[in-house]
Specification:
The protein has helices spanning 14-24, 28-76, 81-95, 102-107, 116-132. By secondary structure, the protein is mostly helical. The chain starts with 13 loop residues before the first helix and ends in a 5-residue tail after the last helix.
Length: 137
Amino acid sequence: MDLQISTEKLKFSPETLRELAACRKNSEAAVYTCLQKLIDDAEKFRKFHRKRHEKALQRSIQWGAEYNAYLQKHLATGLKLKTARTAARRDFIAAHPRPKNADDLIRANEFPGLSRPAIRQYHKAYLESLLAGRRKP
């Protein structure tokens, strides 16, 4: 199968265009090798990107489940929703202290954002995962 592709219609970085230009001057086998390397690199990047986003989603769901446990605990004590959210956020912040120095930061695992929007995002991801059936309550 012969396939001719015009690079003018594609959006490549200058570095990739330089690699393609250098490949054109070589033999046909070298051109295929060069193109295969570019495609392999693109596949590696997409795989890495997808895994990174999946891992971030799993962490969000985990932190959302933790926050939800705090929220349900405070709602069970009879607090109003807004007060229970505030108390649950305080509990969540207390459970995830920030590293105090550079050594702690290096040794620390991933830690969640502690802002109200970040915690709301984790809780939303957790609730959506329950609806999607990804995780059983």
